[in-house]
Design the sequence.
């Protein structure tokens, strides 16, 4: 039996978790002053810092087929890019609801949309987790269309104070709502090596999960600080020194991305929240109502796919996406954050 087979057999069970200022940091935050910088960043296929570019906009609109007078929900408001396009389809007739758990970005998005002419008469925004979709229905009534974009917004990723990115120094937080639950740093203080290894495997398919979990938990046992993004990044970097030099830098970058993703999923209970949303979804939809869900992780896509297939077999959905829809090559080339996106839809019977 080789080492890879032994490692697979020993895979631990991960139980999940059930218990300078940002505005001045980036030129791209002032596109009217630095339009050349923004254009160059986009041309390279990157998203300018502090900006958000909505993904699969036309594909989503084609699925939802929004007409004036309908009632809909953007379950994950974020920057409001998708919401804005859906509001345009309503043509000031009907109503949009939107939810988001983030207390920092939500007021900014509300103000941005209100300044564009979309106030409470056409748009109702609630700060709540999208798994609480059942709390919206008594006010909204059955919904004609629903969108859930499960990606983290660029505004969150690019804000160092949120700790979502290993590329910038900041507190190791990773919570979508920093006022609730525990930060990633607090989570690491009490996690066992086996559970951390399982988390990295289940939430991110991290190939070096065992080595990284061992290094992180050992550092914490020794009393070392693992409370900032750079401290975790340095542990990962030191742990992967065994990788051949020509491949090392790229592998370290990928492992950092995966480890931060795994921690973010964990501290926000993202799989559990999605499961609750999918279970409540049919009762929220009107007959003939359409739903589109945009995922960025294979585990999320699996949950959506299996839920849609099960409810289709039972007759609750009359039609579902036969396969996941991927962003066009053109969109992926112009926006690197679109590359892992998958879009699925369903229509209620």
Sequence:
């Amino acid at each position: 039996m080789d080492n890879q087979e032994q490692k697979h057999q020993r895979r631990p069970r991960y139980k999940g978790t059930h218990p300078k200022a940002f505005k001045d940091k980036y030129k791209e935050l002032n596109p009217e002053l630095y339009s050349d910088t923004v254009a160059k960043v986009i041309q390279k296929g990157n998203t300018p810092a502090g900006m958000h570019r909505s993904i699969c906009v036309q594909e989503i609109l084609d699925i939802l087929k929004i007409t004036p007078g309908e009632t809909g929900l953007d379950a994950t408001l974020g920057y409001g890019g998708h919401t804005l396009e859906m509001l345009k389809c309503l043509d000031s007739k009907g109503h949009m609801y939107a939810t988001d758990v983030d207390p920092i970005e939500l007021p900014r998005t509300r103000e941005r949309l209100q300044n564009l002419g979309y106030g409470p008469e056409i748009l109702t925004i609630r700060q709540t987790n999208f798994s609480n979709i059942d709390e919206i229905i008594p006010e909204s009534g059955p919904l004609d269309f629903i969108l859930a974009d499960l990606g983290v917004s660029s505004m969150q990723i690019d804000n160092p104070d949120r700790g979502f990115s290993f590329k910038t120094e900041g507190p190791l937080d990773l919570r979508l709502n920093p006022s609730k639950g525990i930060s990633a740093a607090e989570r690491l203080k009490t996690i066992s090596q086996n559970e951390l290894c399982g988390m990295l495997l289940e939430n991110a398919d991290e190939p070096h999960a065992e080595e990284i979990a061992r290094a992180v938990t050992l550092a914490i046992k020794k009393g070392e600080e693992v409370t900032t993004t750079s401290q975790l990044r340095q542990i990962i970097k030191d742990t992967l020194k065994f990788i051949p030099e020509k491949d090392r830098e790229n592998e370290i970058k990928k492992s950092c991305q995966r480890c931060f993703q795994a921690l973010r999923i964990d501290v926000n209970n993202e799989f559990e929240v999605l499961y609750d949303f999918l279970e409540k979804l049919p009762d929220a939809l009107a007959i003939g109502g359409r739903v589109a869900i945009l995922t960025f992780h294979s585990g999320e896509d699996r949950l959506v796919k299996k839920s849609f297939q099960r409810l289709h077999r039972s007759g609750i959905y009359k039609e579902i996406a036969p396969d996941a829809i991927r962003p066009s090559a053109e969109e992926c080339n112009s926006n690197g954050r679109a590359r892992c996106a998958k879009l699925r839809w369903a229509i209620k019977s």
